[in-house]
Backbone:
């Protein structure tokens, strides 16, 4: 195991903004906007979404914050930017929302979220239930949302049509069910070839080849994770970083065969101290990192969990020699 405890640090954040972040309590997924100038954090316990405004890369300075509230933001767990001003939110207590995010401002701000689309069904009649995480995939110029429905063990797929204010939800369906036991995180590779799904109850990550929009075939399994949660492909799509919600480290997996077959952790990376980890270990499924994301323009991995709301480490330190 490699320890990065002496290299874990925060963003350059003014005191007023630091207080806003510290008040978030339990957090889940975290996601950079496409241009890297905004960072969204799911405030699971506070029923809010925190948007941090960032100076242009390579700066790691936080310049502003925007707290978003809405009656339908209910235990927000998953996040995905559709562009730099629209955000998809998976609510464990409800459905999937697509909201408009106000223009960036410096300083501390709060506002009501503007709801543009809402998804609460799979297919024509089946209710969506406990959506936990989501990811956008583009295949053959068609774009759609892959959504983890945690407690009905289903990955659903929802077609996205149009863009900006004209974006709308098209056809949707139940896309993957076989073998799923509480899918708790999802990521799409940068080349849109692979789908990675955290399978909470089997302590594995499933790797699927995306065959066409809304269709993916399981080709690989990543073993040895306690409770896999957030996960992100490295920019070359040949490494995958997985947050372990039950342990104080990240797992790095690598492939030299296009993710076929079984894989074991190639690198364990310690990112939480014993004090922080045990303080958050309310049960065997908690204590570790929940949400992660990669910003290649800054060369960092950002992380969040209840006891360590927002920290970062260098991407190169996490991946190590390859």
Residues:
């Amino acid at each position: 195991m490699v320890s990065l405890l002496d290299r874990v640090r925060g963003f350059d954040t003014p005191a007023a903004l630091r207080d806003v972040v510290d008040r978030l309590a339990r957090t889940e997924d975290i996601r950079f906007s496409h241009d890297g100038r905004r960072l969204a954090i799911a405030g699971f316990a506070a029923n809010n979404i925190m948007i941090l405004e960032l100076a242009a890369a390579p700066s790691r300075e936080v310049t502003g914050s925007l707290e978003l509230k809405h009656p339908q933001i209910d235990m927000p767990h998953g996040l995905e930017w559709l562009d730099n001003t629209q955000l998809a939110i998976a609510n464990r207590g409800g459905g999937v929302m697509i909201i408009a995010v106000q223009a960036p401002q410096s300083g501390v701000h709060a506002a009501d979220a503007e709801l543009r689309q809402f998804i609460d069904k799979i297919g024509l009649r089946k209710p969506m239930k406990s959506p936990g995480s989501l990811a956008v995939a583009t295949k053959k110029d068609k774009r759609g949302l892959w959504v983890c429905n945690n407690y009905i063990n289903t990955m659903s797929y929802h077609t996205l049509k149009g863009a900006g204010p004209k974006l709308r939800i098209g056809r949707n369906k139940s896309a993957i069910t076989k073998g799923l036991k509480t899918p708790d995180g999802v990521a799409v590779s940068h080349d849109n070839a692979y789908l990675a799904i955290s399978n909470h109850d089997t302590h594995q990550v499933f790797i699927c080849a995306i065959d066409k929009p809304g269709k993916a075939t399981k080709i690989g399994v990543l073993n040895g994770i306690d409770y896999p949660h957030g996960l992100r492909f490295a920019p070359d799509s040949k490494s995958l970083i997985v947050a372990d919600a039950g342990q104080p480290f990240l797992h790095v997996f690598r492939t030299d065969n296009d993710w076929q077959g079984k894989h074991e952790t190639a690198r364990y990376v310690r990112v939480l101290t014993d004090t922080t980890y045990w303080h958050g270990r309310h049960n065997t499924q908690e204590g570790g990192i929940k949400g992660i994301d990669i910003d290649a323009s800054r060369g960092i991995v950002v992380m969040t969990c209840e006891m360590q709301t927002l920290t970062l480490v260098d991407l190169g330190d996490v991946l190590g020699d390859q």
